[in-house]
Amino acid sequence: AGLEADALFARSLGFDGKAAISPRHVEAINQAFSPTEAEIRYAREVMAAIQKGEEAGLGVVSLHGKMVDKPIVERAQRVLAAALQPGLEGEDE
């Protein structure tokens, strides 16, 4: 429980990984730093909204009543890139 909590805390601070001193720790660390299904779903919504906005000539769009601008798009791109790691993307599709 300590490793998982520590990894989740590190993630909440903006870290995207953690060193492991034992191979037994790798799975827990990977799980803590992997995007959740909800994060992946939201990132897809962001990318769809921004694409639709770009097609309409907009620089900023709204999604669920919130502004979606460049930093939000960049975060969505990072989430989707992480989701392409083995075991995350496409298993439920």
Description:
With 93 residues, the chain is mainly alpha-helical. The protein has 2 domains: 1-33, no CATH class; 35-93, no CATH class. The chain has 4 helices and 2 strands, in the order αααββα. The chain has helices at residues 2-12, 26-33, 37-55, 70-83, and strands spanning 61-63, 66-68. Strands 1-2 form a two-stranded antiparallel sheet.
Topology, number of strands: 2
Strand content: 5-15%
What is the domain total for the residues? 2
The overall pLDDT average reads 89
- Provide a count of the helices: 4
Largest sheet: 2 strands, antiparallel
List low-confidence stretches: none
Q: Can you tell me the overall shape?
A: elongated
Structural class: mainly alpha
What is the CA-based Rg, rounded? 16 Å
End-to-end Cα distance: 31 Å
Written as H for each helix and E for each strand, in order along the chain, the element string is HHHEEH
> Which percent bin holds the helix content?
55-70%
Strand order of the largest sheet: 1-2
List the helices and strands and how they pair.
Elements: H1 2-12, H2 26-33, H3 37-55, E1 61-63, E2 66-68, H4 70-83
Antiparallel strand pairs: 1-2
Helix pairs in contact: 1-2, 3-4
